[in-house]
Design brief:
This protein has 245 residues and is mainly alpha-helical. It is 64% helix and 2% strand. It has helices at residues 7-11, 16-25, 35-46, 48-57, 75-86, 95-113, 116-124, 130-135, 149-159, 162-177, 190-209, 219-244, and strands at 126-128, 146-148.
């Protein structure tokens, strides 16, 4: 991926609602929604290994002192790092593939940690998927209404909304796996519904797994951040396409 996109460029077009969710994911106060504050926190989390190494060697180190040695990752760098952590980097050659494969890998990892009954609920229990489509301005009788989580992903793929639906679903798993509660139902619906489908025992089992060992980059925190960027980026693209028509 020769092209490198600064996170500030991606976040520039986001509204306060989107940035509030990013602030929560970045362990910031929900009122601290400036692009600079969010990207600075992402930089801090992404460089956790360098941060700990520098602090170990120098007793008195501030955030300002670490700026040079801890550059803010680009969007492509986050994608590449997440893919490597998930063990799928050898299969990704473009941004499109990263955006498709990363959410899928997170969903598979979550399903693998569930017991058979929990997985059965994912494939069979219905919920109202309309809020997720409405959030992206998608108006289609074919994909609206009650669906299972699995069928939502299949329909989204057939309808050209695979990345948006996949990233949103994966975000539901990734946030609940590490105990993050988001005010997400107001504009996506699916992530909150996933938690209701599986129930506390399922998420408790995932939480004990923690998804990723906290060594190097802290992907327990960064994976939900990246999935939110992917989902929001594609929601905006869907809305922009509809406005252009």
């Amino acid at each position: 991926m020769a092209r490198q996109t600064e996170l500030t460029t991606i976040l520039a077009g986001w509204d306060e609602r989107d940035k509030t969710i990013m602030a929560i994911l970045c362990d910031l106060d929900e009122n601290t929604t400036s692009t600079n504050a969010i990207t600075e926190q992402i930089r801090w989390m992404y460089n956790s290994r360098a941060r700990h190494s520098i602090k170990r060697n120098f007793k008195r180190v501030t955030r300002q002192d670490l700026t040079k040695d801890m550059p803010c990752p680009t969007y492509e760098a986050l994608l590449a790092g997440a893919a490597k952590k998930l063990g799928i980097h050898k299969h990704c050659t473009s941004v499109d593939e990263y955006e498709r494969y990363i959410p899928q890998a997170v969903i598979v990892a979550a399903l693998r940690r569930m017991n058979p009954a929990q997985r059965d609920r994912f494939f069979t229990e219905e919920f109202n998927a309309s809020p997720m489509w409405e959030a992206a301005g998608i108006k289609s009788r074919e994909i609206g209404g009650l669906r299972t989580a699995a069928s939502v992903l299949a329909l989204a793929n057939a309808s050209g909304y695979a990345v948006y639906a996949g990233a949103t679903t994966a975000l539901g798993f990734a946030t609940h796996a590490v105990g993050i509660t988001l005010p997400y139902a107001a504009y996506t619906g699916l992530s909150a519904t996933i938690a209701q489908l599986i129930g506390p025992p399922g998420w408790l089992a995932l939480a004990t797994y923690g998804f990723f060992k906290v060594t190097g980059t802290d992907w327990n925190k960064l994976m939900p951040v990246l999935l939110t960027i992917i989902a929001t980026k594609h929601r905006h693209e869907i809305l922009a396409r509809d406005d252009a028509q």
